[in-house]
Design brief:
Layout lengths: L9 E5 L4 E7 L5 E3 L9 E2 L1 E5 L2 E4 L1 H5 L8 E3 L14 E3 L2 E3 L1 H20 L5 E6 L5 H13 L3 E7 H10 L7 E8 L4 E9 L2 E10 L4 H20 L7 H17 L5 E8 L2 E8 H7 L1 H18 L8 E5 L6 H11 L3 E2 L7 H21 L6 H5 L10 E5 L4 E7 L4 E8 L4 E2 L1 E8 L7 E8 L9 E9 L9 E8 L5 E7 L2 E4 L1 E2 L7 H12 L2 E2 L1
Parallel strand pairs: 1-10, 6-30, 10-11, 12-17, 14-19, 17-18
Antiparallel strand pairs: 1-2, 2-3, 2-4, 5-6, 5-7, 8-9, 12-13, 13-14, 15-16, 19-22, 20-21, 20-24, 23-26, 24-25, 25-29, 26-27, 27-28
Helix pairs in contact: 2-3, 4-10, 5-6
Length: about 525
Amino acid sequence: MSDKPLNRKAIGIDLGTTFCAVAHIDAYGKPQIIPNTENERITPSVILFDGTNAVVGTIAKQNAVAEPDKIVDFVKREMGKSKSQFSRTFGGKVYSAEELSAIILRKLKGDAEKYLGEPVTDAVITVPAYFNDAERMATLVAGQLAGLKVLQIINEPTSAALAYGLDKLDQDQTVFVFDLGGGTFDVTIMRIEGMHIRMLASNGDHRLGGKDWDDIIVNWVAEEFDKQHGENPLLDLQSYQDLYNRALTAKVQLSTRARTTLVHNYNGRSVKIDLTREMFEERSRHLLEKTKAICEIVMQEANMQWEQIDRVLLTGGMTRVPSVRQMITELSGRPTADDVSPDEAVAMGAAIQAMLSMLRQEDESGTHTIAQEVRDQFSAADGSLIKVTNITTHTLGVVLWDDDKVEEYVFPMIAKMTPVPADMKNSFGTAKANMKNAIVRVVEGESTVPGECTPLGICDIELPPFLPKGSPVELTYRYNENQVLEVVVEAYGRTSRVSISRNTGLAENEIGIATADLSSLTIT
């Protein structure tokens, strides 16, 4: 082993909707949370724009009421959207969701460097398991814009299971990960067996999270205000931000007490409401039922009974809400694992995955710079490293023509729940004789109806003249560990790669420009 010092430092980042966390592996091979420059273990995912300055975190969140027009939050829910679908403008500059996320990531990277006293070059960034291709690609781009080499995009439940299972690899068990954060919801079944952590099934809703519970209180108070004073306090941005903050505080209070009081002032008038936990639970019952239904769906997809689950792992801040915990406990009848923090497990698991990625890179290169003491924490007695296997959370297909039904349909190339990385090849015949071009349409989704799936890309490959109907066109779908797709089309000596138009905010040629623009911002 070389005693040349390691010149790369990798971190794990939980890029959350409402809060972020960062972790690294210490000199003893243990995952540790990295506090930010404000000495907080988690950082609010809020940006305040002030001229050429961008303030990220608690200060931005505290100024949301005073300067709501300068604030950006909940940007994670917009990942994967084009600029025409979502953008924010500050100082004459139009920001995409990737660029806004990159600002948050640069803050996290800078804080980590200050704490560790060395440059941070590499990172594993987490995403909801149910994120689609466009959302994953947007996260990769955000990491690049932030100046990070993204080792891998890892699913949040997988990451949490890594953090939970690192010191339990000698205890074979099946873990149900219930991840309800500020803006997204995932349920995933993981199998820990020997040195292998496998994802068995996953489902979720990436537009369901704590914010929806907050909005219940916000709308509740707004309705009462309108009833008493004939005015809607949500029409004013400053009033909305103030009410939202009060609603968030009330929700937290109702997790530990039976009742609380919320007072909201707007336009010289005020309303005072006594909120009880019972009333809040009744108004938000439909949200809880959504999470319950998704839990039942994922058990069906895995073809499992609750008796086969050994532990329920709760992650995400919303799992502190009593009604959420009660629902999953009653539904599963299984014990919960309380030895990991709901706020920190995902970041710590990402740091573990970052170290595993670097150790594998060392093995491939033959140059070992990571201390053996650290390597031993992630290795079996024979030296083999912990293995993590994810699965596809969406089906990837191609649109074909059905002669019998005289209609288009979707043929699944890579089915949902296929272990990744995956490489699938298939040959299809041309729909009619003398076709000049083969049009390949790549889609994502569970339906066989093209219009019900998400279009990812289209390829037009030229064919030789005078081909009979049914002439072969070969497709290869390659799905990597980041669950990002590459499609190759081959026909009669011609090869073409499908350009996946992922509908992200930035085209390839815009990334360099965006990087330069972001470098002119002072981010604190």
